[in-house]
Amino acid sequence: MTQILMPKATAVWLIDNTAMTFKQISEFCMLHILEVEGIADGDVAAGIRGADPIANGQVSREEIEKAEKDPNYAMKANKFDSDELQPTNKKKGPRYTPLSRRQDRPDAIAWLVRNHAEITDAQISKLIGTTKPTIKSIRDRTHWKINTINPTDPVSLGLCSQIDLDALVRKAAEKKAKDDAARAEDEGETLTPVESAPLAEEKPKVEHTLESLFKPSTE
């Protein structure tokens, strides 16, 4: 089955704009049905904007109409060239963000900072094409737009792909796990158990009396 780009954002759109069942949406977006129900209830994917799968070429309108008419119909996604989904080994330059979307960067930064604390400022900067001072000002709540910022998934804003975001989150989580393990190991080595600490050698106790000090030696 063709991998769906922005599955949660697509699910949001399908829930809001079609009569498809939760089961059909979960199968098409490759999400657990409970997750789809959570999206519908507003408990999951809060702040994510719906992504129209027809507009981005992932499915045809005819397929959606078939699914709406038959709740047992499994909607089929359009096939994509594998080169469009798999990252290349070519060196990438700075990410270009259209001018119309640059105003959404603070919302995306706030969402990443709130939901993925394991991602570093450098990684956020590279993912959505922003600067470290901007990220820092949002973390410190000193950004000039801080009162109007609405944390929003960068994928739904079109600032990055779901594939890039998932890969970054996985990489950051693995690095954090390694760092935590290394830190725990270092702290364990610095603490020596009381039982294993060497005991100071007890010196024989020497008692001197006034008589013994003035007693002539017999040697």
Automatic annotation (TrEMBL):
Segments for region (Disordered): 75-101, 174-219
Bias type Basic and acidic residues, positions: 174-185, 200-210
Endpoints of the signal sequence: none
One Pfam family in the UniProt entry: TrcR
Organism: Litorimonas taeanensis
Stated name of the protein: Cytoplasmic protein
